[in-house]
Amino acid sequence: MRFAGTIDRVMAHVFDTSLIHPVALEAGELFAAAGFELSLVGGPVRDLFLGETAVDLDFTTNASPDQTLAIVRGWADATWEIGKEYGTIGIRKGNEMVEITTYRAEKYDANSRKPQVAFGTDLVDDLFRRDFTINSMALRLPSLELVDPFGGEADLRTGIIRTPGTPQASFSDDPLRMMRAARFAARLDIDLAPEVFEAMVDMAERIEIISAERVRDELVKLICAQAPRRGVDLLVESGLAAYVLPEIPALKLEADEHYRHKDVYQHSLTVMEQAAAQETGADGAVPAPDFVLRFAALMHDIGKPATRKFEDNGSVSFLHHDVVGAKLTKKRMRALRFDNDTIKAVARLVELHMRFYGYGEAGWSDSAVRRYVRDAGDLLERLHRLIRADVTTRNKRKANRIAAAYGDLERRITELAEQEELDAMRPDLDGQQIMEILTLKPGPMVGQAYNFLLNLRLDEGSLGEEEATRRLKKWAAEQGL
């Protein structure tokens, strides 16, 4: 399967040398003076042809790690040797953190998650071992001679992802490259060569030898890319998603000939796209790209396969799919070794994405609006965007009605926030005051009293300390205090 696409920016016919960082040129002079080769390699070279300044500087050299340390001594502000075993020396020069790696070749044993590394002596051999031709270009330093033995520049220009050797050999050396293929297709919005996609299909199962952490990191980059829908689609169609994110291909529910419902898989991809389109810039409430929002959008309906029910009237229901989906999201993200804060945030958005529906028909009390804000917490801005992105109906009247209802809810939230400083959402009395009023020592009863006052605040707004004290004493008497 091949996915059409083009790079949506103008590639420079000749890269702008002003984009090359001065540190790269200085390092080149340093290694040349010592009689060794040094080249800027991989992503930084690719990005030069896209008119971008490289964020990370990666170098390759024929110097051994110990020789590299000797060459940069006195020039580098700091060095570290954590990757020395794999030929990599880290360097800090000014504000720049760079890595210099000895020419090498690496591959994975059939049942190993760790690469076997062998150092090399030739730049072209080093480039051959790299993942894709667009990343197999080097710029010799300080001469700025382009070394492109596998046609990376041409592939970048035509918008195609190929491997320097056979994709089977490349993916066998490092199966994570199959996910990287999908990620680069998503980042640059370009095609996979047919043979690359076919190899992904044939070898998808091999992704299981890769650690969950590496899979997670690649997935995050894919979701945060320019065209995440393309990347997710590639994972699903190649079969990789069945191993790393099986809940997504499971959304391809088969529609019974007598029961009709929308394509949940395509709907989820559309919601992810629409959510990404609603991200704001770096100074906005949800800076782009936002993994939590995008991933929640992708996962928001994963509870539907488990909750689908065909009703007698011919309709299809998915009762409580939001709650089930939140649990499934937590389980999958834990398996991928996400941190607890990210897991909680994504799962909470999945759980809350249906809370709004019904507002337009029945309306909500001020208490219900307060609870909506309280339950969303610092995810409120993301929840706003997820709810709006979840509208994919082609029925313009229905879409407009939902948009108007949610606009009204947002207006009410703003008004209540202005009136009550809703963001703080604290009771009128704090824990210390509760203990003084009820002559309590720290313990569970203080927490119960606090929750009582918090619920009062949510239901009735701020009561003031005097009324809150009266209510607290009455509650305490009812508790037998």
Automatic annotation (TrEMBL):
Signal peptide: none
Keywords, comma-separated and alphabetical: ATP-binding, Magnesium, Metal-binding, Nucleotide-binding, Nucleotidyltransferase, RNA repair, RNA-binding, Transferase, tRNA processing
Entry annotated with the keyword tRNA processing: yes
Species the sequence originates in: Rothia endophytica
Database matches in Pfam families: HD (PF01966), PolyA_pol (PF01743), PolyA_pol_RNAbd (PF12627)
Annotated HD/PDEase domain residues: 260-434
NCBIfam families per the UniProt record, alphabetical: HDIG, tRNA_CCA_actino
Cofactor(s) annotated in UniProt: Mg(2+)
Protein name: CCA tRNA nucleotidyltransferase
